[in-house]
Amino acid sequence: MDFAHQALVDNVSLTKRDMYYKDVPLFKAQGTVDRLVDDLAATLGLERADLKIRAASKGLICGTGLTIHLLEGDVISINDSEGTLIPTGETIERFDLKGNISWVLVVEKEAVFQTLCRFQFASHQSLPGPGLIITGKGYPDVATRQLVKTLSDNLPARIPIVALVDGDAYGLDILSVYKYGSHSLRHENEKLAAKRIKWLGIWTSEIADLGINLNTLIPITLHDEKKALAVLSRPTDVVPTKWRKELTRMLHIRRKAEIEILSSSSNQKSNFLIHYLAHKICHFIEMSV
Predict the structure, then answer these.
(1) What digits encode the pLDDT tens for the residues 84-110?
(2) pLDDT digits (tens, 9 = 90+) for 49-64
(3) Residues 175, 177, 178, CA angle at the centre, nearest 5°?
(4) Helices in 124-266 by DSSP H: which ranges?
């Protein structure tokens, strides 16, 4: 609390990582700081930004046509061949979108994101128009969620916002954070939940149709099973029917579909990933018209 008070007095933002390194012996782990800050904000009925405390950015975005203007005057231009760090919401003045984008893809894993950047997938010729690709590198930070929320609230309904996550309980839990919010920041969920986002894949139910042998899928662990049962126990309004069916199927066949099944270091597999995503995105665009 002293750190937050000092940050407010000095009017200088402090990252949770900064707080941790101010007294490592006291906190012992970064997670301790994360929980204390979230609990303090929730108790006071404030957002972390109101306390001048923020998480360090980690999310990335690539694509065409988007420019981010920062309060300090800097301008960040997004391109389709490399990831750009997503700045925290409190440092952003406005977004400018030039030209028409046709879709937004949120990717769970950074490795897949980098592959798509390498292929310049955001402007790929197999798609009906350019798009934006975003990754939170697993569970997303607040800055990434704020960006996806902003796009969800402001882009026309004809532009689909879709997510590529593992077809297991952890992948769906990450998608749930984008779509419905997180438990730790439940007091901020209305400002962070991007209700429009839809699950593009990967689905266990489509593996056979993709020509992939089920035996090549990774067997689920006890942790996977426990996590799946925990997700299935949530209220129906935060676990759509499609999610429930896929998790139930995973538990039945005892194997999980991970994104990596679509991609490897070989060009053939990478091209398979490109074709899979292009086909799925085109389908969602058609459904949104």
Answers:
(1) 999 988 889 999 988 789 999 999 999
(2) 666 666 667 899 999 8
(3) 65
(4) 142-154, 169-180, 189-192, 222-232, 241-253
Q: What is the DSSP letter of 220?
A: P
pLDDT of the residue at 242 = 94
pLDDT more than 90, % of the chain: 60
Q: Which two tokens stand for residue 9?
A: 């007095």
Sign of the CA dihedral with 143 first, then 161, 212, and 117 last:
negative
Query: What is the pLDDT at residue 49?
Result: 61
- Whether 101 and 61 have beta carbons less than 8 Å apart is answered as no
- Cβ-Cβ contacts under 8 Å for 179 (sequence gap 6 or more): 193, 194, 195, 197
79 Cβ contact list (under 8 Å, min separation 6): 62, 63, 64
Question: How far is CA 80 from each of CA 30, 92, 134, rounded to the nearest angstrom?
Answer: 33, 21, 11
Predicted confidence (pLDDT) per residue in 274-283, tens digit: 999 999 999 9
Which whole-number Å values give the CA distances from 180 to 77, 107, 188, 232, 236, in the listed order?
29, 17, 11, 15, 12
The set of residues, in sequence order, having a beta carbon less than 8 Å from that of 54 and lying 6+ positions away, is 13, 14, 15, 16, 48, 88, 90, 142
Query: Residue type at 132?
Result: L
2: number of Cβ within 10 Å: 7
Listed residue (173, 111, 185) closest to 146, CA to CA: 185
Distance CA 112, CA 32 (A): 30
Cα dihedral 259, 265, 268, 271 sign: positive
Which residues are catalytic, by number?
21
The pLDDT value recorded for residue 158 is 93
Which pTM was predicted?
A: 0.81
Q: Across the chain, which distance is largest between two alpha carbons, in Å? A: 61
pLDDT at 255 > cutoff 70: yes
Q: What share of the chain is helix, strand, coil (3-state, %, to 5)?
A: 50, 15, 30
